[in-house]
Amino acid sequence: MSESLGVAVLGAGHMGADHVRRLARSVVGAHVVTVADPDRARAGAAVAGLGDVRVHADPLAALAEPGVGAVLVASPDHAHEEALLAALDRGLPVLSEKPLAHDAAAALRVVRAEARGGRRLIQVGFMRRYDTEYRRLKALLDAGGIGRPLLLHCRHRNVASPPHFTSATLISSSVSHEIDAARWLLGQEVTAVTVVRPRASASAPAGLQDPQLVLFETDAGAIVDVEVFVNCGFGYEVTCEAVGESGSARIGEEPAMVVRSAGRAQREIPRDYVVRFADAYDREVRAWVADAREGRVGGPSAWDGYAAAAVAEAGVRALNDGGRVEVDLAERPGLYR
Amino acid sequence: MSESLGVAVLGAGHMGADHVRRLARSVVGAHVVTVADPDRARAGAAVAGLGDVRVHADPLAALAEPGVGAVLVASPDHAHEEALLAALDRGLPVLSEKPLAHDAAAALRVVRAEARGGRRLIQVGFMRRYDTEYRRLKALLDAGGIGRPLLLHCRHRNVASPPHFTSATLISSSVSHEIDAARWLLGQEVTAVTVVRPRASASAPAGLQDPQLVLFETDAGAIVDVEVFVNCGFGYEVTCEAVGESGSARIGEEPAMVVRSAGRAQREIPRDYVVRFADAYDREVRAWVADAREGRVGGPSAWDGYAAAAVAEAGVRALNDGGRVEVDLAERPGLYR
Amino acid sequence: MSESLGVAVLGAGHMGADHVRRLARSVVGAHVVTVADPDRARAGAAVAGLGDVRVHADPLAALAEPGVGAVLVASPDHAHEEALLAALDRGLPVLSEKPLAHDAAAALRVVRAEARGGRRLIQVGFMRRYDTEYRRLKALLDAGGIGRPLLLHCRHRNVASPPHFTSATLISSSVSHEIDAARWLLGQEVTAVTVVRPRASASAPAGLQDPQLVLFETDAGAIVDVEVFVNCGFGYEVTCEAVGESGSARIGEEPAMVVRSAGRAQREIPRDYVVRFADAYDREVRAWVADAREGRVGGPSAWDGYAAAAVAEAGVRALNDGGRVEVDLAERPGLYR
Amino acid sequence: MSESLGVAVLGAGHMGADHVRRLARSVVGAHVVTVADPDRARAGAAVAGLGDVRVHADPLAALAEPGVGAVLVASPDHAHEEALLAALDRGLPVLSEKPLAHDAAAALRVVRAEARGGRRLIQVGFMRRYDTEYRRLKALLDAGGIGRPLLLHCRHRNVASPPHFTSATLISSSVSHEIDAARWLLGQEVTAVTVVRPRASASAPAGLQDPQLVLFETDAGAIVDVEVFVNCGFGYEVTCEAVGESGSARIGEEPAMVVRSAGRAQREIPRDYVVRFADAYDREVRAWVADAREGRVGGPSAWDGYAAAAVAEAGVRALNDGGRVEVDLAERPGLYR
Predict the structure, then answer these.
(1) Spatial separation of the C-alpha atoms in residues B184 and A7, rounded to whole Å
(2) B337 touches chain D (CB under 8 A)
């Protein structure tokens, strides 16, 4: 096997620190060389106890460190574009947390820069593609197990939303996972979005349109409906039912242990994505490291990141303006076909 | 207890013959006095072995038979209005199979005729209100068990559609059950309809828009989405999930016996509504007979029948024209408040 | 159809009054002619509002009433034998609540009296044979759906036991249902019993051996294990898993509605058998009435009642003495082959 | 963090080769230094592509290699004792695949040798303790979530047994997992065993007593029943239901994806333990490596290995002789209290 992959981690917030810990403790074949964060103390805290890891305020300085063979981008959205372009310049494989960039236009610039380079270097962190259940559903669909898929019914529920969430964030941040999952599961592009607004829950912060029912149409005529409800109160629940011409398949509904007590047969619902998708994050980073060590890039591409951003932007317009909004996708460069 | 209720059954087709059998064998306190069907032989076959039951080609002649204390209307849709008006004239309690009449305008005439009479005589055959699971869900919602309801997700799937089904029939016949169930569960009126058209299944007859995703908005801001798929191939499945401000509740998904064999843990899905709703039909007719013997009428009213028809007509317009169609309901007479 | 069946109901306690109500309101083709109970006031209360029903303190006087065409025995156990022999004398079809008689010896006397008469008149009230799920399991086993059955795993759980329950009652009353169900599902006789005694639950009354694990062996080598736990606290739960040579099948575990709230996906467990087996009782009595009107007797026979009693007695000996106790069955009269 | 742990893997059969692969690819902080197998070619094949790993026919030679800091024993059962004693001699932490040794007497010699040394070095490979569902059940029991446990109902089913399986192997190999799981979940010792023999399945090899119902009693009065059925034909299924004084809890029954097709709602049952327990093996070895690097030993101890062996031997006697066999455990050395 080739030698250990030296990784520069950009961003030492919640996700960044989590990836540092993951690379150090759960991923074979990689080590953290450097961590960059404008808040150097935060970067230092993230690497405490890891031995010789250099800390920078400037991400470009981190990329320039000797021994850096790959980059993990977990900085704030608006910092992604510069970091990604720099990594492309240096020919470094990148795993970028979602979103790829702060808006669709920036994402498209990244796509075009990578396309100009002529080889794929960027993977986007849509970790559901590494979840065991999603993979099982994908395998079933690809094998024709329920015939051609016609509908996806998705639920994305959180106990409560963070303070900064706006009605648009429900689409651009939460539903963006479903956008990628739908594109991936179906192998189709999303062409139009409609957002239906039920009465807002009294449990949601004032002014927040929560829940929403978001409808996607694809270029092959499938329909995807997503209930997003980020103040559902009762648990973190991500489910997906695919309905095909000869059957349906559903994932995400049955946590394992059944407890009978006090007149109820109960299953616990996880509180957050850390419980539900912990293994998916591990698998994602392991796969990325294994690929990078062999000079390959797999997983969701920069194009996937751009397409998700473009669809999400159409979704936010549909939310704000009402009615159906068509998605205006750029032409797909040959690199991503 | 009062004496046995003499029932005139109008229509000796599948539903009519089934009701004759039910009244004779499964319902205490009622007996079939007469059956009318333009095809007298069919009427005769339906009452074979039941002793002294008179048979007519003309429904009005049946209503005039001595001993008739109530009417069960199971004739074709276009014959309902005349029969219902005649029953109202005679002051007879009626159980009318759905739809109340052949269109919303006719249904409204029936409503107004009953309202003029000043007392309720008509019950419409929306039998889901008598299904154990629906009743449990209704009780939970009424008790505030999941907070104020915001969304209903409904699935209505049949193995295969009968030959006469058109794209509009999916709404006017199949989805009409969900229209009534939603109005009843929520205690709200439907104010607008949108129909989303996925690619049609290759398993559906050519030209049939199947499946459809039908969206309803209510006067309290709840959203109801219905997947109707009448050629799903795999079974008869009617499910409903209510999502409220503090929880969700779902019915209809778990047939009872789990069989493990050949690498699968399996539950059988019923083939048709006869299996799924057999008990509901029995309960419906028993409740109607019990009420009629005490001079009362309960269950879904003529107004419910009219409202379902008006919503379904808006749905068919939405299907044909695209976009969102508002429901134009007449004013509700005081009798139904 | 023949005329309505006149029924004498013996015993106006909880079960008797329930059967009176059932015959009057839920069963077509029968009417209650007379009710007997040593407590005439209780008998009178049971028939209030039913019109002309005669009331007796003496069961034999009730049997002698004109118009009595069948007998439903719901009196205390020790009164069964005399009532059953009297009904046999008069050639009346009988539905006897379980147990058939107060002990196996008395049950055997009833069996022999019926056998002498040369035709079956007695049905025993093992109502599980009329439960939809049990019938589905029976049909699966008979069709060879899981191959030859090798094991039955049964659970019989009650929230709390009535005051009169002794350790032996758990077997003679609760487990007697599993004894009949196992004999019926497998079509085999039970040949030996072992009772394993876990530590008693602190929630059970002092001195009560609860739970118990009761093991049955059959003449075809199948093993049946029954957890009986009548103070389980959390609900009424009766489940059965059959394990065969090519698969397994389980019933009784999944009540219908799933409610998500407060971090849990929950299903309600019924509180008692009235909820769980209400429909089975209705079906049982309807089937008995329909048979009786055609001069037939179906369902569990007097032999089944005797065999259950004999097995239960062996079980109580096994409970008291420890170890394995063989069941000593009398020879089966030809009438029951 | 301390430096990477050098591991000697003894045995390059199925399990050994799997552990080599696991250490190389899935476990951070360890590397394989040497592999020993009497079949040197097999050892060589296991380490192909791993770089500088030395290969031996003699396990003791492997232990003597420089850089060996820990030992993973995956050799045949009869070779365990010598390897374990040698590792103890050298003060090396060991992960030994189950069983600890080829019989209880040998296991006890290992226990005593470790006890003489005065510190724990040995962990036994009962990997269920690292399975997410088992851990959840353990946490629930420890938290008193269902009150004091009274019964465990276990199922251990395999599609088909390997050729070398005897009736005794069902207990000593398959059920040994349940023995450890029960001791661990309950925190109690097993004091007696009874084996009930249903008719053997026609699908099992001639002469094999399969299935078996194995009953354990514990020193706190709990009862454990285990259905072991290693030719069940339909899948690999390991389930456990704990019944306590105030509720029950069950794990292992609900694989994730539900597919509806052809009249069935189906869940796939895994084919073998590799699917079901893959993550548990990974977690086990990761935990062992992490502990060893910090000079600790956790997980199931040599005493657990000995106790499982002693209970299994009593079980085999119970199988052969019939009746109830008491477990004769040696006194537990202070090291394991």
Answers:
(1) 59
(2) no
What's the pTM?
0.92
Q: What is the mean predicted confidence (pLDDT) over A157-178? A: 96
Helices (H), A187-272: none
pLDDT at D76 over 50: yes
Q: Is B108 exposed, middle or buried (0-12, 13-18, 19+ CB in 10 A)?
A: buried
CA distance linking residue A146 with residue B9, whole number of Å: 43
pLDDT score of B254 more than 80: no
Helices (H), chain C: 14-25, 40-46, 59-63, 80-90, 104-117, 132-142, 167-169, 176-186, 273-293, 302-321
Is the pLDDT confidence value at B260 over 50? yes
Query: What pLDDT is stored for residue B268 in this prediction?
Result: 83
Domains and CATH numbers, chain C: 5-128+279-301 (3.40.50.720), 132-273+308-336 (3.30.360.10)
Residue B158 phi, psi dihedral angles, 5° rounding: -120, 155
Q: Do C263 and A234 touch (CB under 8 A)?
A: yes
Q: Residues near A92 by Cβ (< 8 Å), separated by ≥ 6? A: A63, A68, A69, A70, A71, A121
Mean pLDDT calculated for residue range B183-200:
97
Q: Mutate which of C226, C243, C269, C321 to disrupt the D interface (most D C-beta within 10 Å)?
A: C243
Contacts with C260 from chain A: Cβ below 8 Å: 234-235, 237, 269
CA distance D269 to D272: 9
Answer whether D261 sits within 8 Å of B234, measured CB to CB: yes
| pLDDT reported for residue D268 | 82
CB < 8 Å to B234, chain D: 260-264
The answer for C150, left when phi > 0, alpha when psi is -120 to 50, beta otherwise, is alpha
Is the pLDDT reported for residue D196 higher than 50? Answer: yes
Mean pLDDT of chain A: 94
Residue A263 token pair: 């007149």
Reported as a single tens digit per residue, the pLDDT across C28-82 is 999 999 999 999 999 999 999 998 999 999 999 999 999 999 999 999 999 999 9
Residue B173 has pLDDT above 50, yes or no: yes
What single letter denotes the amino acid at residue D230? V
Any CB–CB contact under 8 A between C145 and chain A? no
Q: Which residues of A touch D256 (CB under 8 A)?
A: 132-133, 136, 251-252, 254
Q: What secondary structure letter does DSSP report for B77?
A: G
Q: Per the structure block, which two tokens stand in for A52?
A: 């010789």
Structure-token match 């893997």, residue found: D9
Chain B residues touching residue A221 (CB < 8 angstroms): 198-199
**Number of A:C CB contacts under 8 A?**
54
A5-45 per-position pLDDT tens digit: 999 999 999 999 999 999 999 999 999 999 999 999 999 99
- Selecting from B1, B133, B249 the residue whose C-beta is nearest the C-beta of C51 gives B1
DSSP sequence for A265-326: EEEEPPSSHHHHHHHHHHHHHHHHHHHHHTT---SS-HHHHHHHHHHHHHHHHHHHH-SEEE
Interface of D with B in 226-255 (CB under 8 A): 233-235, 237, 253, 255
Phi, psi of D29 (to 5 degrees): 95, 10
B149 to chain A: closest CA residue: A201
Give dist(CA D137, CA D186) in Å, integer.
10
Which chain D residue lies closest to C236 (C-alpha atoms)?
A: D247
Is the Cβ of A202 closer than 8 Å to some Cβ of chain B? yes
Per-residue pLDDT tens digits for B21-50: 999 999 999 999 999 999 999 999 999 999
Q: What is the pLDDT of residue C1?
A: 45
In chain D, which among 246-305 make CB contacts under 8 A with chain B?
253, 255, 260-269, 271
pLDDT at A2 > cutoff 80:
no
Instruction: Give tens-digit pLDDT for A283-301.
Output: 999 999 999 999 999 999 9
